[in-house]
Design brief:
The protein is mostly helical. It is about 75% helix and about 0% strand. The longest helix is centred in the last third of the chain and has 51 residues, at about 315-365.
Length: about 375
């Protein structure tokens, strides 16, 4: 697969946004516009979804001579890309109670129940409000990712052109809005108001945007000036959306507006020569972003635990906030660099080895 550095850079921006939003929430005394920008960083998850859909369709079209996906190989590869690091994080967060007893860190992790454990293990926690906040912090996004994998073989057959991509994106977006209107006053949505945002029907249009983005990128080229214009316009849109009030759900879902702006930003970044926005450092952050995503929750809890209240009075809210963000990002990045090498990469190689072994056995049966 041809290396597309801008995709790693996009993942880097996505994880920066996610870490920023979690580092921002304790600092509600920040100026309102700055606080809004900070918590809007959570839209980085939608950028992850867009890049994921783009990457999957890019790789599938390059490797498939037909649009028939060898399902065993596809799901083996996807499982071993995600599961080893995710299950390692699950073991860590399950053991966190004992760690917490020794250092006294205050956390908001859910209590362990059998249903929550099994739904986390099966990547299915977004299927029910009581399972939403899984035993791995941030697990809702990974659950959505796996549900999207189930849809990929069908979508790969159905969505072949830009027009089809736009139609499917618009249709699923309208469906998500209708479902929200029909369910917002009913159980179990009343008990967990945010569930209608996190659940899969509300995130599926974002994945479809990623597929459409790939088709637009595949079938079109523009001048360098056009790419730069796309980048400038998209950044302006993201800043405008960033300072608007944060809401989980609005009449027209704001996360979809962010998704459209992210698609324009991705197109612009794909054609800009140079190393400013698409720098190798940002690409590296993107490469380790999955590990970084899973470990930064714990690191942030530790940072907040040792952060003293008087620091805000002495140095100012904005300084302590930014210091919290940077320390969390750097420490998480160091840990993620290690876990990427010792857990993620071996997991990826194991998945590939299983696929090769299966293919070799299949060839032997055919020649026997």
């Amino acid at each position: 697969m041809q290396k597309l550095g801008f995709l790693d850079a996009l993942r880097g921006y996505a994880i920066l946004g996610v870490v920023l939003t979690h580092a921002t929430r304790p600092f509600q005394q920040l100026p309102d516009w700055l606080y809004q920008i900070g918590i809007q960083g959570s839209r980085g998850v939608q950028l992850f979804f867009i890049v994921s859909a783009f990457t999957l369709f890019y790789s599938l079209e390059r490797y498939m001579t037909t649009r028939q996906i060898p399902l065993q190989d596809f799901y083996t590869k996807r499982f071993f890309r995600i599961a080893p690091m995710f299950y390692a994080a699950l073991l860590f967060y399950l053991s966190f109670d004992w760690i917490n007893a020794s250092i006294g860190i205050s956390t908001s992790y859910p209590d362990v129940t059998l249903a929550l454990f099994l739904s986390t293990l099966a990547f299915s926690n977004v299927l029910h409000p009581e399972w939403l906040f899984s035993l791995v912090p941030g697990g809702w996004s990974i659950s959505n990712e796996f549900l999207f994998y189930l849809c990929v073989p069908l979508l790969f057959k159905l969505v072949k052109t830009i027009r089809q991509g736009v139609v499917w994106t618009a249709a699923t977006l309208m469906l998500s809005i209708v479902l929200h209107r029909l369910t917002e006053q009913s159980q179990p949505f009343l008990d967990v108001r945010s569930f209608s945002f996190y659940w899969f029907p509300n995130q599926l249009p974002i994945f479809l945007m990623g597929i459409t983005l790939y088709l637009v990128w595949r079938d079109n080229t523009w001048s360098t000036r056009s790419y730069r214009t796309m980048t400038i316009v998209s950044i302006s849109l993201l800043i405008f959306l960033g300072v608007t009030p944060f809401d989980v759900y609005s009449a027209f879902p704001k996360h979809a507006l962010f998704g459209l702006a992210f698609c324009l930003f991705a197109l612009g970044l794909s054609g800009i020569p140079g190393r400013i926005l698409n720098h190798r450092v940002m690409q590296y952050i993107g490469q380790i972003s999955f590990s970084l995503y899973l470990v930064h929750f714990f690191v942030l809890d530790v940072v907040k635990h040792y952060m003293k209240d008087e620091w805000v009075q002495q140095y100012g809210t904005a300084t302590v906030w930014m210091s919290t963000f940077l320390v969390t990002l750097i420490v998480s990045g160091i840990i993620a660099s290690v876990t990427y090498q010792i857990i993620e990469c071996p997991g990826i190689q194991l998945g590939r080895s299983l696929i090769r072994r299966r293919q070799e056995l299949h060839q032997k049966k055919q020649t026997a």
